[in-house]
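Q: I'm writing up a methods section and want to include an example of the input and output format. Could you take the sequence below and give the corresponding predicted structure tokens, formatted cleanly so I can copy it straight into the document?
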Amino acid sequence: MELLKKFNNPVLLQITCDALAERGIGFRVENAGMNALMPLPDVMDARLRVSAADMDVARQVLDDLESGGD
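A: Here is the clean output for your methods example:
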């Protein structure tokens, strides 16, 4: 699995995970909640990973969310 994006905001992480799940894109979240325990920027951010085969679609979902569209 490849890194799609790092998150330090749990709400944005959940929104992104929900959008990926709705589209049937498999993903894995690493370090979820660790930022609350040890707030070290970039070190303990949650990491959202998707398979290489789904990366293009996952990036499009992320772009749509960031631009306000769905």
